[in-house]
Amino acid sequence: MSFLPFLLQAQDNDLLKYVNPLIGSDRMGHTYPGATVPFGMVQLSPDTDTIPYEMNGKYNKDVYKYCAGYQYGDKTIVGFSHTHFSGTGHSDLGDILLMPTTGALQLNPGTAAASEKGFRSLFSHENEKASPGYYSVLLEDHDIFAELTATPRVGVHRYTFNQGGDAHLILDMMHGIYNYDDKNVWTFIRVENDTLVTGFRQTNGWARTRTVYFAIVFSKPVESYGFVNNAPPQVYRGFWRRFDQRTNFPEAAGTQIRGHFDFSVSKGEQITARVALSPVSTDGAVANMLAETPRSDFDTYKKNAETMWQAELGRVRVTMMNNDHMVNFYTALYHAFLSPTIYMDNDSRYKGLDQNIHTTEKFENYTTFSLWDTYRALHPLFTILQQKRTSDMVNSMLAHYDQSVHHMLPVWSHHANENWCMIGYHSVPVIADAVVKGIPGIDYNRALEACVTTARNGWYDGLDDYMRIGYVPDERTGSSVSVTLEYAYDDWCIAQIVTTPDRASPYQDTTIFTEFTSRSRNYRNVWDPSTGFMRPRKTDGSFRPEFDVLSTHGQGFIEGNAWNYSLYVPHEPEGLIELMGGRKRFTEHLDSLFTMDLPDEFFAETEDITREGIIGNYVHGNEPSHHVPYLYNYAGAPRKTQYWVRHIMDTKYLPAPDGLSGNDDCGQMSAWYIFSALGFYPVAPGSDRYDLGSPLVKEAVISLENGKQFTVSTINQSPENVYVKKVELNGKKLDRSWIAHDEIMEGGTLVFYMY
User: Fold this and answer.
1) Exposure b/e, 545-567, CB count within 10 A at least 16 = b
2) Which pLDDT score is estimated for 505?
3) pLDDT interval class at 612 (50, 70, 90)
């Protein structure tokens, strides 16, 4: 379909000026400021250090700050690599690093304290600029002005050498994020001619069999080149040993290779480097380059990238109370559209989970599924703003299932690998949400089969016990309560697929509905009425005797404590309220959560929870609590939902380099803000319901892919007017605290009267 209407609206509003990729990270700096296009396979960005994953055989805690490769507080840049994660709490990637230098050749990155002793360079934020699709910085040590832009599969570099003389482009195949000495399984570089270089890199990291192929074209012929293999000598070196492979030898292979390409430049001369990636082959990388960047025309590709971002950001046009809110909103929308990422060549080929090459027929293949995070709000946001991509993402998950020897949907997957990171099987709510909301282009029967098979895989993370006794016992995993609660929710989602209208299923629907509806109530099996909290339970049925409801470490929960995770029943809040003693008692419990004190000692051992993300004992900086402010609606206290939602937006989202209160986690933190600023939120993805809150926008116009528009407007909006007096949908008073997905997709106007 054509996206021209989105493009015209975006250009009219000049939305790019409200996006600043240098802000909106958390205090750890887990987003990056580089150049990419929406959902691009290439995510080109500066990396500011080479912190190793381990030191002396132990995990190096400092590496956590470099999940995205870039730290705002650093003063040096080691180079520009082409793959990054946005806002994750674990990492990988940082492939194919290029760095321009001048003067004497240096093939070691050096240290931050002595940048002049390596190829890294000092830089200043005063000489740094980032905007959607573009990044630039002055590399002070070499007096080189570096600029980056991108297409979906190609990173484009332009280096202006302010001083003439000897120049070099360093190609660092050793560099990586969460790096360690043995991470490279193999790398290969081939100099095809004086402007074209190809190769690949295979790594054993978070994704243990990940291979990225590349092709580099320089705008100026290389005068000389060379390679250094920094790996320890192997016992067997074959007959390659008779060649001098260090200088002008057109092949290099090994695990620790750095190369250099040398030029003579005049003062002010520019060199452009185009770097195409492929999951399939170097031929695929070359073809991607020819399709997307056939010429060394940096300005055209920069303009094209900006046009693509204008179109995507223009899907939602808002007016806010002040410029800071505008920056927060559109930077959040920018972050939400960074991933998942395209993972296929222009000819529709990609490497599958089975490590074979596949060709898509009716969908674009995506990767980077951080599902424990993104099922909550990011993917539901896509069901409104990105319906075609939602269909493609679901079909990518189903292809993953088809290729899985375990017959499992993705858990946390990227680059043809399953990482098995985090818990649950949260492809299920993404798929269920798409099915329930009628996203076209999905085979509902096939989707149901994949969800049911995944949920019945007893070997996976305590599922056998869960199916047998109704919960995951404490003896099986240190996250037993969290796992039980998340399985229960996922199971409810499967039941919702069964009840979707107009679905002729070969399954016995009644049997599946009964099975998974029953399983969805397993949250009750870890409820301890004596404490009023969810609690780890032994195989014999007894509760764990030693139990601390405040600690986030070793208490049966993952990245949370009993106070937060005991509220994780998004699919049946009425049942949870009943367990906790009714509406009045439940409201009092939520009040205590938001106003009590949680001393630092109770989350000191949990990397993903920091003081910045906490209100009382409510942890907004981590995902399991994101639905909690909206639970007041179910207790008959919507005014408190309105208060806390606005308070969170006002205090936990700031237009600053450390403006987020926790990891953005591939867009989830940003998606929470986007939904909440619009005035509604998906408490239980897998249903068609969005709970109302307190909008931050003055007006928002959502342009839908079906050609209709849905408008949110507010009357008497102000920083002080955080409460909602009444709500009207298409001119009629809304007598409920939620709206339905179809009501949005039909177009119309939702009006909040604030006071």
Assistant:
1) eeeebbbbeebbbbbbbbbbbbb
2) 55
3) confident
**In degrees, to the nearest 5, what angle opens at C-alpha 375 toward C-alphas 407 and 153?**
80
Interior CA angle at 111 toward 78 and 266, to 5°? 50
Pull the structure tokens for residue 612. 């910045």
Query: Could you report the per-residue pLDDT of 207-226, keeping only the tens digit for each?
Result: 999 999 999 999 999 999 99
Structure tokens at 614: 């906490």
* CA quadruple 422, 423, 424, 426: dihedral, nearest 10: -10
Phi, psi of 48 (to 5 degrees): -105, -5
Residues near 303 by beta carbon (within 8 Å), at least 6 away in sequence = none
Cα separation of 212 and 230, whole Å? 21
Count Cβ atoms below 10 Å from residue 469 Cβ, excluding itself: 15
Averaged pLDDT for residues 538-553: 96
pTM: 0.96
Q: Are 189 and 229 in contact (CB under 8 A)?
A: no
**Helices and strands in the chain: count of H runs, count of E runs:** 18, 38
Residue labelled with tokens 């994949």? 450
Distance separating alpha carbons of residues 104 and 590, to the nearest angstrom: 63
**Structural domains of the chain, ranges and CATH numbers in brackets:** 31-310 (2.70.98.10), 315-754 (3.30.2080.10)
Q: Which of 588, 592, 596, 566 is nearest to 579 (CA)?
A: 566
* 85-116 tens-digit pLDDT: 999 999 999 999 999 999 999 999 999 999 99
For residues 42 and 81, what is the distance between their CA atoms, to the nearest angstrom?
9
Helical spans, DSSP H, in 314-422:
323-336, 371-374, 378-385, 387-403
Determine phi and psi for 159, rounding to 5 degrees: -115, 125
* String of DSSP letters for 80-130: EES---SS-SS-----SEEEEEESS---S--BTTBGGGSS-EE--GGGEEE
* Strand runs labelled E in 111-195: 121-122, 128-131, 134-139, 144-150, 154-161, 165-172, 184-191
Q: Which residue is listed with tokens 């291979």? A: 211
